[in-house]
Write a structure and sequence with these properties.
Layout lengths: L1 E4 L4 H10 L8 E5 L6 H4 L4 E4 L8 H5 L4 E4 L9 H15 L3 E7 L9 H16 L3 E6 L6 H4 L3 H4 L1 E4 L10 H12 L7 E5 L7 H12 L4 E4 L2 H10 L4 H15 L9 H6 L6 H7 L1
Parallel strand pairs: 1-2, 1-4, 2-3, 4-5, 5-6, 6-8, 7-9
Helix pairs in contact: 1-8, 4-5, 9-13, 10-11
């Protein structure tokens, strides 16, 4: 049995869709905080279970019988993600899950300026200490984020950022599909596994691609980080969110998202989606 958390979200929802091409629906269970949102999976013959990382008592039942358990990382920037992940891992240990797979992130490290990267590193440490077989899916930075991180460049012709550096912008759909391939592969994947697109352009290079696609001159402007945060707040963004995003740009500038790996393309059997294709589709 493969048990998948977060399947009502975009990433693990794609994974479940691809699992259905590989194994019978009866071998899949999804765990959701709101089971009503998972009705489409129930309609396909997939078992739907209630589970919440904040509910330590209920999670063991949700994870029962899992040969493999796909844990989605918490997406709430205001939550104590590591504590939530610890609760989920402890529940997996309690019921003897065969293998835990965790949706981590490229650049997971204790010293990254990007807060989730520190959380992912801490969670990987918890997995390593759990005694369970585990795989950490270090996905490249999700490319759909470009649509809001780059701002309204189609209208202004300008991408304004507080720092710039290479990012292996990776399509969430590709990462989700790769997770399904890994869970149904004959070979094992142990520890951290890096899944990225084939290139890591800077925002300056993204602007060049945007210019080529639109036929207009798109420029990048790197401004003072405090000035950038102030502009985000003035536009209605909560300051804690603006500073959360600032960490992403600073981590890119320091090279945390610069590496690329051919594994994703190998798993997919095709080239991963590119920044050009993402911008062109958006």
């Amino acid at each position: 049995m493969i048990v998948v958390t977060g399947a009502t979200g975009a990433l693990n929802g794609v994974t479940v869709e691809h699992l259905l091409h590989r194994i019978p629906a009866g071998q899949i269970a999804v765990v959701a905080r709101d089971v009503a949102k998972a009705q489409r999976f129930a309609d396909l013959g997939i078992q739907v279970r209630h589970g919440d990382y904040a509910d330590a008592a209920g999670l063991p039942v949700a994870f029962e019988g899992a040969d493999q358990l796909l844990l989605v990382s918490s997406s709430d920037p205001a939550a104590d993600a590591v504590a939530l992940h610890r609760t989920a891992i402890e529940a997996a240990v309690k019921v003897g899950v065969g293998r835990v797979l965790y949706t981590s992130h490229q650049g997971a490290a204790p010293d990254t300026p990007f807060g989730p990267g520190r959380d992912h590193h801490a969670t990987e440490q918890l997995l390593a200490e759990s005694g369970l077989p585990w795989t950490s899916l270090r996905n490249g930075f999700y490319a759909h984020s470009l649509h809001w991180l780059a701002g309204p460049w189609r209208e202004t012709g300008r991408i304004t950022v507080p720092a710039d550096g290479p990012v292996s912008w990776t399509a969430r759909e590709d990462a989700g599909e790769a997770a399904a391939v890994i869970m149904t592969a004959d070979q094992g994947f142990e520890g951290p596994v890096t899944l990225t697109a084939e290139s890591a352009p800077t925002f300056a290079e993204v602007a060049v691609i945007a210019s080529e696609l639109t036929g207009r001159d798109v420029q990048v402007e790197v401004i003072d980080p405090d000035q950038w945060v102030a502009a985000q707040v003035a536009a209605g963004q909560p300051e804690f969110v603006a500073r959360f995003l600032l960490g992403m740009f600073q981590a890119a500038d320091q090279g945390f998202f610069a590496g690329t790996d051919p594994l994703l393309g190998t798993l997919l059997g095709r080239a991963p989606r590119t920044v050009r294709s993402i911008l062109d589709a958006g």
